[in-house]
Amino acid sequence: MSYKSFWLIFCQLVTFTVALLFILSTLKPFWFENVIDKLELGNSEKVHLKFSNRSITQEKGKDENPNYKFGFTEAAITAMPSVVHILSKQNNTSLRHPFFTDPLFERFFFESESFLHDDKKPSYQSLGSGVVVANGGFVMTNYHVIRQATELEVTLPGGEKRSAEVIGIDPETDLAVLKVSDGTIPNIVFAMPNQINIGDFVLAIGNPFGVGQTVTQGIVSALGRDSLNINTFENFIQTDAAINPGNSGGALVNGVGELIGINTAIYSQTGGNIGIGFAIPIETVTFVLTKILNEGKVSRGFIGIQPADISNEYSVNVEESNTYVRYVLKNSPAYKAGVRPGDVIVSIADLQIKNSKHFLKTVADLEPFSRTKLKLKRGEEIIEIGISIVERPIFN
Asked: Are residues 381 and 257 in the same domain?
């Protein structure tokens, strides 16, 4: 055999081998796992690469790892049948709460255009979403979606339209419960409280801009946001899942389709999504829903004090309390007990007060028509007084 013939045969073998390896590595990559796992860098550090041998077309129920998912299809399919579209027809009347006239309000609430009334129009429509939270057709949504509604229409995911009535409202958490006629609609599954973590994957489901039911995905960005001054009682979940006008009252669900919150607001300079959305957590949703279904309303404790926080510059550090009495409502329990503006609030019901938000929540959790103790600092003197708890009036 000549030298030239030898090299021709050798080149053909090399070409065939390379082609075969390329075909096998494309069709059967897992055959090469053991080889790749043994690769070494120049510094002798091993590189461990793992490849899934699970086929995308593998039949459901035959997965080697049932927790492995290609996306959030199952979570979406589980939750979507329980999320509805709400059309609220409302009278064009001026708003009574001075907060709603603040320009900053437009940066938070979705349906801000609903509050900028054209006095020439006798009525307008507000679009929002809702979640079926209990059998019998009970739907939870945001109060601002149905506020001052003269007529409510709910559209189911399949397109069927049904009338609805308001069962109860809680303006101070911006929640409301509706009942849909002929309520044979599947209700959503609630996630267990206190099992939400920063970084968890979430889906936001609603009807943005009225285009139809839409699912977006993101993560839990933060928990316990309580300083937005949107609601009296706040404990928002923050998420970067895309939320837009029309998502108000829609569902925020976890990776298996369980409800973890009601989408309520976004922070935006333009009115569109920039990845900062807020949802009312399942703990608040459950509390309000239970109260409304069992009692027809949400009752909270009240003593007639408007608290405020002392700035760090003027902090008095009285037993770690920096909250003072800004205003006392005339003829309220606090007024009758002798509480004065300027008093520093140390504790109530033997619970140390951290800040004004904590004080409001602590008082709200007290049982109406009971009595408790309020500890104050007045000047250099610590005083403790007995005070009656009454039912908190509705501020809407």
From this structure: no
